[in-house]
Design goal:
Distance between the termini: 51 Å
Largest sheet: 5 strands, mixed, barrel
Shape: globular
CATH architecture: Beta Barrel
Number of strands: 5
Helix content: under 10%
Number of helices: 1
CATH class: Mainly Beta
Number of domains: 1
Strand order of the largest sheet: 1-2-3-5-4
Order of helices and strands: HEEEEE
Radius of gyration: 16 Å
């Protein structure tokens, strides 16, 4: 391995979801939905996951559609950070 191989880093996971809670300081809860096929019944099922994301400026509100990226652990449950606001709540 060379120094350049160690310096490169793998791609970080990026998800898009809707903010469902902004009551914490510098933290938002984002509901990320994904559609998958049920292994036995072969029906399309919508699965949702609530991720805690870091919002440094407290500018994101409930109902906003945001893009979040995986990052180092920031606290016990926070492993994501808000990258951008895709769409503001109406």
């Amino acid at each position: 391995m060379t120094a350049t191989d160690e310096a490169t880093r793998g791609e970080r996971k990026v998800r898009q979801g809707v903010v469902v809670s902004d009551k914490m300081d510098k933290t938002v809860v984002v509901a990320v939905e994904r559609r998958t096929t049920h292994p036995l019944y072969h029906k399309i099922v919508t699965l949702s996951e609530r991720l805690h994301a870091h919002d440094e400026t407290n500018e994101v509100g409930v109902g906003d559609r945001v893009r979040i990226a995986e990052t180092r652990p920031l606290s016990k449950r926070k492993r994501w950070r808000v990258v951008e606001v895709v769409e503001r709540a109406k």
